Amino acid sequence: MKLLVILFFSGLMTGCRGNSSYSVPPKLLLVSFDGFRADYLQNYEFPHLQNFIKEGVLVEHVKNVFITKTFPNHYSIVTGLYEESHGIVANSMYDVVTKKHFSDSNDKDPFWWNEAVPIWVTNQLQENRSSAAAMWPGTDVLIHNTTPSYFMNYSISVSFEERLNNITMWLSNSNPPVTFATLYWEEPDASGHKYGPEDKENMRRVLKEIDDLIGYLVQKLKMLGLWENLNVIITSDHGMTQCSENRSINLDLCINRSTYTLIDLTPVAAVLPKINITEVYDKLKNCSPHMNVYLKEDIPDRFYYQHNDRIQPIILVADEGWTIVLNKSLSKLGDHGYDNSLPSMHPFLAAHGPAFHKGYKHSTINIVDIYPMMCHILGLKPHPNNGTFSHTKCLLVDQWCINLPEAIGIVIGVLLVLTTLTCLIIIMQNRLSVPHPFSRLQLQEDDDDPLIG
């Protein structure tokens, strides 16, 4: 019985190792629909996406990194790093040493990207492999002197269909073969900003268009014979929350603009003081009860948002649904960037392919966990990262996975079986040791004859 228990617990504690040696390198397509809030899946109909999920896996909530904006989270997905580590700390940045500025329209300088190594670079450096990209942030930049073998310069005017057509062409007809490809689409983020996520009528229309695009993607992959052998991950960078003019924080009512420079605005504002930092901080910290004001060194540890020179001396964080403005105008009815613990900021993840289980649902992972999972699927050695591969093991067919309730149930079940077997053995042994009825008394040779009365 002791041997059985030891063997059981040895199996429980030892997971299966993934096979990283492949005769034909596995292929992976990573797709992002910007601003796809996790609970859209519960609140709207997605027939094509639900069919994709039924044949694959679903992670209902992906906890992203703070700040919950587009450039930072897309780089966290492909590096497995928090923003303070990979250096893309906002959509708008300023470096005090070089005096350089970064924005979504001025993002091509490798200086901003070279603090990390994205997965397409790692894959690109593997023997007989190449990478491809359709407008994923950073893929049109020479990062560590490397771009994907095939990529598209970013242009919002290029349709999803054209982006997908290029990706599938590169996956089908490239030498060396494209083993990692990534595809980005601006919706439903753009419409979420315009209408707000609580505008059911408009968001229903937009999300139906997204679902139709997913249907087109699957149909295209099947038509080209890629569907069965290609691993596909569909995810997003962040969610979206509703804003309104009644929830505005007007900095002009609290502090003179001449005393500071605003590097990034709302809902996380990056403030570079022109005068004494303490003086600017004191004026801002009492500006609104709906905004937290942090000196850089006091930013909560759970944000992992302190240790980078691109993070400004003062950070303002608005409460969910509140907007930081310099006047009373409000241009967005929906926004993101808020505290990454908020469910409204979380995206989802769905995946399909030979590396993934079929019909499996998982509650949550961290967005930085996606990177080590992708490296495992591709057989790449990951760079140091903040992700945890064990968080995604349950999604993968080559990994042994069990959760705590199941483990407790199995242990109790095994103990009950062992206890029952032990009791049965004891009962059988007792029965065998009882003397048979009417058995003759056996006398020793030196015993006297028994007395007969």
Automatic annotation (TrEMBL):
InterPro entries: Alkaline_phosphatase_core_sf, Phosphodiest/P_Trfase. One of its GO terms (cellular component) is plasma membrane. The keyword Transmembrane helix applies. Its cofactor is Zn(2+). PROSITE patterns: PROKAR_LIPOPROTEIN. Pfam families: Phosphodiest (PF01663). Its EC number is 3.6.1.29. GO terms for molecular function: bis(5'-adenosyl)-triphosphatase activity; metal ion binding. One of its GO terms (biological process) is positive regulation of blood coagulation. Keywords: Blood coagulation, Cell membrane, Disulfide bond, Glycoprotein, Hemostasis, Hydrolase, Membrane, Metal-binding, Signal, Transmembrane, Transmembrane helix, Zinc. The chain crosses the membrane at residues 407-427. It catalyses: P(1),P(3)-bis(5'-adenosyl) triphosphate + H2O = AMP + ADP + 2 H(+). It is a single-pass type I membrane protein. It is an enzyme of class 3 (hydrolase). Residues 1-18 form the signal peptide. It is found in: Cell membrane. It comes from the Eukaryota. Belongs to the nucleotide pyrophosphatase/phosphodiesterase family. Hydrolyzes extracellular Ap3A into AMP and ADP, and Ap4A into AMP and ATP. Ap3A and Ap4A are diadenosine polyphosphates thought to induce proliferation of vascular smooth muscle cells. Acts as a procoagulant, mediating platelet aggregation at the site of nascent thrombus via release of ADP from Ap3A and activation of ADP receptors. This is Bis(5'-adenosyl)-triphosphatase ENPP4. It comes from Sciurus vulgaris.
